[in-house]
What does this fold into?
Amino acid sequence: MTRSLLAVIDMQRVFAEPGSPWAAPRYAEAAAGVRRLLPAHRDRTVFTRFVAPARPEGAWRAYYDRWPFALQPPNAPLWELTEEFGGLATRVLDAPTFGKWNPSLAALAEPEGRLVLAGVSTDCCVLSTALAAADAGIDVRVAADACAGADDDAHARALHIMDLYRPLVRVTTVDELLAEAQ
It folds into this structure.
């Protein structure tokens, strides 16, 4: 059986709270899928957090000119994991980038293992993480029903794009992943 690492991408207040400019409208549905995946990945789970850099550089300067509300330190409330996950997250990786596939996450993944992705936003951070991990030769599974996008159309388009990368990236469901884990 292939050992899986579950990476729960950016289940943070900034993406959960309806008044946030970055709210994912189906955050609650994604959270329900994540909750279902957690028991099958007990000690093989990592949560990630998108955080703003102290000083944006390059194209990130224009990005934060557009989204100045987000230029807050990593300990700001908007970057906190939502309450339902904060107490469950024993391993948390912060990154000031959309993609979370970096040396810290790579160190937790097994070269012959599998990376299961869930979280937000499907059309940004999940997509960026999936493609970078696939480029590194990691077997990636994206739990479609444990992800949420900026809107339903963006979510569906991102899933379609990721599924074009088969067999490196495969879009699947929580039920299928849980059945494989047994």
About this structure: The first helix runs from residue 13 to 16. DSSP finds eight helices and six strands in the chain. The mean pLDDT is 95.
